Backbone:
């Protein structure tokens, strides 16, 4: 694997971590759970928001890969 391949893998890992944490923070600010049902709602919203963020992040990373390829 060349250096570009390693850099793209690093970009994917960093992007994954940023999206995971960012979607959790966004979901927490949106739901603000104060009970057990609120916590369950937070987890559901986090899953939905995370999926949307991952789709957007994947699209951006795909664009970056095509630009540098």
Residues:
């Amino acid at each position: 694997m060349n250096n570009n391949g390693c850099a793209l893998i690093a970009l994917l890992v960093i992007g994954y971590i940023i999206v995971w944490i960012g979607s959790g923070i966004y979901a927490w600010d949106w739901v603000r759970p104060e009970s057990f049902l609120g916590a369950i709602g937070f987890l559901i919203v986090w899953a939905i928001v995370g999926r949307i963020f991952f789709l957007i992040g994947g699209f951006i990373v795909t664009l970056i890969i095509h630009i540098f390829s």
Q: What stands out?
A: The mean pLDDT is 86. The two ends are 14 Å apart (CA to CA). The helical segments are 3-31, 36-68. The CA atoms of residues 5 and 65 lie 10 Å apart.
